[in-house]
Amino acid sequence: MAMPQAQLKDALALLGLFAGPSRTRARTVYELLSTHNLLAERSLYLNLGYWEKATTYDDACRDLADVLAQAAALGPADEVLDVGFGFGDADLYWMERYAPRRIAGLNITPLHVREARRRVAERGWQDRIDLQEGSATRMPFAEATFDKVVALECCFHFDTR
User: Fold this and answer.
1) E strands, 75-120, where?
2) How far apart are CA 36 and CA 44, in angstroms?
3) Sheet-wide strand order for 148-150
4) What is the pLDDT of residue 146?
5) What is the pLDDT of residues 69-78, one digit of tens each?
6) Interacting residues of 93 by C-beta distance below 8 A, sequence separation 6+
7) DSSP string, 34-79
C-alpha cells in the first residue's frame, strides 16, 4: 500500500532535519508541527508554558505570555516587536489583555505567518498587529522603531545567538 502524499511529504521533511543544513532546521520543525498541534485544546501555542498554577497546556502557555508581558511592562502606549511569534497566540492575547498601541512581528516560518495573519484578520486587528516573515538577526526595521522587543521561548533558534 502506497503512503499518502501528505505523509510522504512529512516523512521527507523529517528526514531533511538530519540531512539538511542546520540553518533551516527550525523552520522545518515548525512546518511539520503545522496547525495540527495536538498539545492544546483551544490554542496553537508552541511553547512549554508556565506551570505554577496552570492545569492545562493552554493555560500554561497563556500564563507564560503573561509573565513576559508583565516583565516587559506592556501597556497601551507601547510599540512592540515580537520576534518568533509562532501562530500569533501571544500577540492576540496581549492585544486583548494589555492593549499595546501596535505589535509588529517577525517569524521565520511562512506557514506560521500566513496562519497568524489569518487569525489577526478574523479579529479585525490588521491595523494594530503587523506580522511578517523575517529573521530576528536581520530585522527590516529602523533603529528606535519599538519601545519593547519580546521573544517568547524562541531565541534558541536565532542563528547568531
Assistant:
1) 79-83, 102-107
2) 8
3) 129-133, 102-107, 79-83, 148-150
4) 94
5) 999 999 999 9
6) 62, 65
7) TT---S-SS----S----SS--SHHHHHHHHHHHHHHHHT--TT-E
Ramachandran assignment for 78, one of left (phi > 0), alpha (psi -120 to 50 degrees), beta (any other): beta
Write out the three cell numbers for 4: 499518502
Count H helices and E strands in the chain, helices first: 5, 4
**Tens of pLDDT along 26-51?**
555 556 656 555 566 666 666 667 67
CA–CA distance, 78 with 27 (Å, rounded to integer): 29
Q: For cell 538530519, name the residue.
A: 18
- Residue listed under C-alpha cell 508541527: 33
